[in-house]
Amino acid sequence: MGCIKSFAAILLTAMVTIYPNFCSANEISEQIASLLGAKLDVSNTLPDRKSLDAEILVPRFYEERDFTPAWTRDELSDELFDELDSAIDQGFRPEDFDLAELQAAFKAAQSGDVSNQALFDILATDAAVKLVHHLVFGKVDPNALDDDWNFSKPVIQQDPAVVLNQFLQGEGFSALIERIDIDNAQYMMLVEALSKYRAIALQGGWTNVPDETVLKPEMVDPAVAKLRERLAAEGFVETSGSSEDGENGINTAWVYDDNLVKLVKSFQSRHGLEADGVIGGKTFASLNKPVEDRINKLRLSLERGRWLMREVDDEFVLVNIAGARTYLVTSDGTLWTTRSITGSAYRKTPVFRDEIKYMEFNPTWTVPASIFRKDKLSRIRKDPAYLTRNNYVVRNKDGQTIPANAVNWGAKNPGVTLVQQPGPDNALGLVKFMFPNKYAVYLHDTNDKTLFDRNERNLSSGCVRLEYPFEFASLLMEGEPDWSRQKMQSILDSGKTTRVDLPEPMPVLLTYWTAWVEDGVVHFREDPYERDARILAALDR
After folding, report:
1. Sign of the Cα pseudo-torsion (179, 184, 187, 188, in order)
2. Which UniProt keyword terms apply here (predicted)?
3. 355, 509 Cβ separation under 8 angstroms
4. Cβ neighbour number for residue 118 with a 10 Å cutoff
5. What is the pTM of this model?
6. What is the number of helices (H) and of strands (E) in the chain?
7. Strand order in 401-402's β-sheet?
8. What is the pLDDT of residues 295-317, one digit of tens each?
9. Whether 264 and 323 share a structural domain
10. How many alpha carbons fall within 13 Å on the CB side of residue 193?
11. Can you give the three-state secondary structure of 178-240, one letter per residue?
């Protein structure tokens, strides 16, 4: 956007230099036209009449209404301030709307001075336009920050200047905001979570837990009392530990007892840590991050939600790459979830939207060229039996199967493709879920279930592995008369590669959230792809 400060500054400067007092109501319009003259000249040279950029839209908005003031009705200005307060609850800052300048202009306008009234009217429109833009598109343009961003912006079907005028002259500004608000349960739960953590911040946040000693269950240590206070501040306990002496004169607040162990395990689980109750380096680091870190992660998730959640269907699959979980979501909430394995920092899972169209049972796996070069070629050179043992066939450039010993494996580029045949040892497991895309990414089973036991599961080469793929397959086909678990098992037992089309394509969103709400509980994760800092910096500009 880039016009929040400049637009207000230009108007305020103009006020100082050119405005005498006026007494005619019509002269408010003249003041508005005078203030916007230069801006209007620029705006009219631009072809995009559906832009939500305030520098373009504000002058055109007033041109549509012959420069008459838009916010003279008390209820409209009340609605504007209410909606701006609500926007701050959704993670925006007052500075995003020049709220201080707007409030000062509103107060000055009460004197009846025409120049002040004109200034307030323009600043109010500027704030309203920015609010609409930020809710529809998000404040930050993801395309400007991430070359791998693959979602398109919502399409503006009508001239925003006309629409804003219609609502201000009719149903009001709040009705417009209600029309464009995101109606999504996850988004609203994030708003509630942000409110909770901001309230914690207002109460002083939390103090650090001394990290000199690894804390284990049943230990007695003064740091345990600080641990109780820290957890209580985030709502894990209702009160801090008792300071009364227990047996043998031991301060019970220092005892790492079973009740506190349960709370620590819950904290660890919510932060993607090993839930063993042992407080070492990673748990200390998570405990001692300030509340502002949590607030910013929630603000980032809300911004990402504005990018993604506006046009989702009632039923869709959501993959949280950072959290390494997959969800089947319906209009009633999350129907099903499973642990997942997503792309590593070196082979990132892309963020995009598509539709699952079919499942493939007993799939083959064509090894991508990058994995062939970086992983497979060195293994084959060291172990000639690797291909046979792992059920690979070799194909030449024409797609013909050739003997492995006919290939010069010592060459930099042997010019062949590896295809792993169906079976329990196949890297894709026994089923994959296809939404054909330019990234060659899909969801699939795996032949190595042990990796799901890890807490940090950003381990794959880009595709998404599911811990319980057959449950997922059954849910995707639920209600189909010709489908059953027995039929699926029969297909699996055949060993033949079999495609099964879904009755209707299922939308799938591959997203990246480092904070989210699940079953009413807020979860936080580290930032495996190191994306948060850049987005936060842009969000705070």
Report:
1. positive
2. Cell shape, Cell wall biogenesis/degradation, Peptidoglycan synthesis, Signal, Transferase
3. no
4. 29
5. 0.88
6. 20, 15
7. 365-366, 417-420, 392-395, 401-402
8. 999 999 999 999 988 878 889 99
9. no
10. 27
11. HHHCCCCHHHHHHHHHHHHHHHHHHCCCCCCCCCCCCECCCCECHHHHHHHHHHHHCCCCCCC
DSSP state for residue 450 in the 8-state scheme: G
Where does residue 153 rank: exposed (0-12), middle (13-18), buried (19+ CB within 10 A)? middle
Instruction: Domain count for the chain, please give it.
Output: 3
Instruction: Give me the amino acid identity at 491.
Output: I
393 token code pair: 């066939």
Q: pLDDT tens digits, residue range 445-495? A: 999 999 999 999 999 999 999 999 999 999 999 999 999 999 999 999 999
Residue written as tokens 């016009």? 3
144 φ/ψ angles, rounded to the nearest 5 degrees: -80, -15
The reply to whether 58 falls in a domain is: yes
CATH of the domain at 437: 2.40.440.10
String of DSSP letters for 330-344: ETTEEEEEEEEEEE-
Q: 192-230 burial string, b = 16+ CB within 10 Å, else e?
A: ebbeebbebeeeebbeebbbeeebebeeebebbbbbbbb
- Residues 6+ positions from 325 with CB-CB distance below 8 Å: 319, 337, 338, 339, 340, 518
